[in-house]
Structures are given as structure tokens and as C-alpha cells.
Amino acid sequence: MRALNYLELESELDRSGIGTATDQQRAALSRTDVDVVTSPWRGGHPARAPFSAAVGRGLFRDYDLAHCNLVGPGSVAVARHAKRNDIPLVLHTHVTREDFAESFRGSEAVGPLLGRYLRWFYSQADLVLCPSTYTKRVLESYPVDAPILPMSNGVDAESLAGFEELRAEYRNRYELDGMAVFAVGNVFERKGLTTFCELAAETEYDFAWFGPYDTGPHASKTVRRWVTDPPENVTFTGWIDDIRGAFGAGDVYLFPTKNENQGIAVLEAMACGKAVVLRDIPVFEEFYTHGHDCLKCSTRAEFRRALELLARDEDLRRRLGENARETAAEHSLDRVGERLAAAYREAYDAEREGRSVDLSRLR
User: Fold this and answer.
1) What local confidence, expressed as pLDDT, does residue 345 receive?
2) Confidence of residue 46 (pLDDT cuts 50, 70, 90)
3) Neighbouring residues of 28: CB distance < 8 A, sequence distance ≥ 6
4) What is the pTM of this model?
């Protein structure tokens, strides 16, 4: 099978969660017999496609199945082309109305409109993939009229190999000492920015958030306030060239996110054997167990007590980290590749046989 695995705006989303998830899909599929193309356009770019069309070759490349990872105009064009030409269409839910909130300035205001758009867009699919059962329930509430299959984004543990060797370099670079509390990813209020900073102000540990942030017109007032005037024990690193340095430098991964579809960076921290502290939200119920591979908290006081406990009990940190590494192994790219290839085959067979995708064949 030749499958299109498409992410529009790919270069702009290189270090985002969506970009990471797409990279991991492709790495997982490389371990299967699926032949992957990453651009739908003849010539490799939409600007070049019209030249191919002008000489009778068409705008789109040839592929047996289309899988889109975003929801913009490029993906809409691919979806329309697939439906016109009886090409099975798989749409991946990395964006929901709920997790878009508190990401950028004005994101909450456009939420209702976004929800209606996403319902229309995802309902075109022959199969919708999403990172969690929680996300499936969210989509069903819209409602999305298409078969929906939860599938872990997985974690590329091999890409993190050698993180320990970067510990001294990155701790020295960002002046981290003692038990370093850290987060990884784009700096958004949705991901618990205020809680992160307020906890730092109430404790004596060094806090570091590794990841880019925006202080321009698209940034929320909350992000601008915290990154320009953080507590003195908080470092916002901005973009870092080697994300392994974050996992080498940090000791306790703190993720007080308010809404998430899965959270790849959590799995990355776990794959590195870090103790993880999470907000107790529904999506984490299906993946992680409090007291076994993480600590879950609901209030700032609970977060503070969790950090204090981990600071004085190194054995607990070690045990949580060891169990977390085992949890991350359940989300290996080998497993993701097998499930993704099976989903492609079922969507392809269903299209050829003139039936709907049968989710019972993908359990």
C-alpha cells in the first residue's frame, strides 16, 4: 500500500506536539510494509502543483490512502480529492475545540466556530484516529459522524537515547541546582503555566520550562506576563536545539495541564525514567496510575505536597521513574506501527468492498 501521511505547515510545526506525533507515525510506519509519501502535491509543494496540472499530470500524486494530520485548507483539498476519487480518507484528531482553548490570544472566542468546523471536517473521514478514549468521547459529543478509533501517539524512546550525557551541560547552561522541576513544550496557559509559576513562587526548587513561547500579538496576556516577569527561580529557556537536554537536566516532570488529548512529552519524560507529577484530568486516567508511575494532583496545595514528598524521598522518585519507563514501553513505535498499518488496511479494504470501516476488526 502507498499511503499519504500529510501534515500541512510541516516546517512551522516541527517542534510542536502535532509535528512530533506525525514524525512518530512515519517512523512507526517505516517498520511496516506501508510505503509512505508525505506530500500530496506533484512537485512536492502546492506552489509547484499547478505546473504539473498544466501539462496534464494533475495536482495530486498517486496514493492508495490519504491520512491528514491537520485541519487547514491543504487538508481540506486532500479530503475533497480523496472523496472524489474513492480514495479512503483517514483524519487524525490532534486538534479539538477543548484543547485549543487558552493556547493563543482569542482562542476561547473562536471556540464555538471551531467546534462546528471540526465536526464538519472530521465527519468526512472514512476513519477518524484520535490519541485517547477521552478524545473519542469529546468527538462523539460534537457529534462527529464517522468511525472513531483511539490510538496512542506513542513515544520514540530511541530518539531520546543519550539524554543523561547532557545533564551537566544543560544544568550549567540554565543554572539549575538540586531537584529541578521541569516542563517541556510550547508555553501555553492551557498547559498549566500559572500553576507552574505559582508553585515555583511557593517553593525553593529550581523550575525550568523548556520550549518556545510567543510574546507577540498572538500571545495571551497570561503568557506575556509570566515569561517577561517570572518568579526568580523560574527559567523559560525558549527554543532549545536538542530536546534531550531538557530530560537530562530535569528531575521531576511537572505537567499541570488543564486539557490534553494525550501529552507526548509526558511519555517522553517517562521513557527517560523521570518522576512525573500530573494534573488529575480524565485523559490521564486511561494511561497512568497514581502512586505507581506518577503522582496526580487536583489543587495547588496537592501539587506542592507532591513536590515536597519527592524532594525528600529519592527512593520514591526512583521507583516512580522505573515504573514510568515500563509504562512508556507500552507505547512503543513498534506497537503504533502495527496498529496504524492495520487501520490503513481496514480503511482500504472497506472502501474497495463498499462498506464502512469495521472497528471490531481493529481491537
Assistant:
1) 98
2) low
3) 154, 333, 334, 336, 337, 340
4) 0.91
Give dist(CA 62, CA 37) in Å, integer.
9
Instruction: Please state, in angstroms and rounded to a whole number, the distance separating the CA atoms of residues 339 and 4.
Output: 16
For the record, the C-alpha cell of 144 comes out as: 462527529
Does the pLDDT of residue 158 top 90, yes or no?
Answer: yes
Among 280, 281, 260, 284, residue whose Cα is nearest residue 270: 284
Closest CA to 180 of 201, 198, 206: 206
pLDDT tens sequence across 77-113: 999 999 999 999 999 999 888 876 655 555 566 667 8
C-alpha cell at position 192: 498549566
pLDDT tens digit string along 171-198?
999 999 999 999 999 999 999 999 999 9
The three cell numbers locating residue 167:
545533564
pLDDT above 60 (res 144): yes
